[in-house]
Amino acid sequence: MRAEKETQLASTVLMIKPIRFESNVLTADSNVFQGKNPYSPGQQQDAAEREFDCLAGALKAGGIEVVQFDDTDHPHTPDSIFPNNWVSFHSDGTVVYYPMMARNRRAERRPEIVNSLADDFGFKVREVIDFSEYENNGEFLEGTGSLVLDRVNRIAYACLSARTHLKPLADFAQRLDYEVIAFDAVDRNGTPIYHTNVLMNVGETCAFICLSAIERDEQREAVLTSLEKTGHDVISISFEQMEAFAGNMLELRARDGNRVIAMSDQALKSLNDAQISVIDDNANIITANIDNIESSAGGSVRCMLAEIHLQR
Could you report the per-residue pLDDT of 133-177, keeping only the tens digit for each? Predict the structure, then answer.
């Protein structure tokens, strides 16, 4: 059992600046959100670099510490801009490496980054737990893409998919002392949703979720009951809003102690006045235009941020 208390909101995030960003052909079959960009790989990279800088700048201006590393040119890792899929950081000093479905994503795991966080930035790393061996059995759990964590109540919400399997999920739960609430979810065309963080996010007091995506009534009720029991105001988003990445927000803690919530311009534009009012009452909004990243790679702001909960 892990007695260490953890806050829900991080004040520091890890970001990886892309070098050879492009839509990843090895993830296209499981991610219907990607591959909607007509640009060449070079054009996608140029646009992604500009969008990355805008988001990083907006986060810094909003009071969030951004620890930034550059991607490596070789091997080619087209999705390296999404570090939350290969690593998570926990306040008791635990660092977790995750098993990735696409072979060209596995090279994104870079222990030298974790070493640098400790050696150069003063973060305390106590233990590294490596689940990547599950790749040998064709079983995957892609970090806080597969897992939406309620860190305070130690609940892991997980949408089962080609990238989120039960065995590594159970291993995560046992090793890190989390309760798992697993469910099946599809988009409005009946296609399985590849990552849990596409359809929901959990903040300190609010949770946004596309309830309609959860197929089975009993699973939907279990998720809703859990969120309400843990004191969260639940704000339902539509399929259309999910497709605009409104589920892919991330709530953080600014240096002044206030809550902020980061999302893309597309996500913000999809929300109605009532939903924006709820957010405004809860947190300051940080936003950036990352249309190219979203349409090329099928991920948004939350995917680009790996929260660093390690202590200094």
Answer: 999 999 999 999 999 999 999 999 999 999 999 999 999 999 999
Cβ neighbours of residue 185 closer than 8 Å, sequence gap 6 or more: 159, 192, 193, 196, 199, 210, 213, 214, 215
Q: Per the structure block, which two tokens stand in for 201?
A: 């996010």
Evaluate whether residue 2 is within a structural domain.
no
Instruction: Answer yes or no: is 140 within a domain.
Output: yes
Tell me which residue range forms the domain holding 177. Answer: 12-307
Radius of gyration of the chain (CA): 18
- Structure letter (DSSP) for residue 2: -
| Assigned domain for 5 exists | no
> Is 28 inside a domain boundary?
yes
CA 68, CA 265: separation in Å to the nearest integer? 22
Q: Quick check: 163 and 146 in contact, CB under 8 A? A: yes
Side chain identity, residue 43: Q
The pTM (predicted TM-score) of the whole model is 0.95
Query: How far apart (Å, rounded) are the C-alpha atoms in residues 106 and 98?
Result: 9
Looking up tokens 């590393």, which residue turns up? Answer: 69
pLDDT digits (tens, 9 = 90+) for 258-277: 999 999 999 999 999 999 99
CATH code for position 79: 3.75.10.10
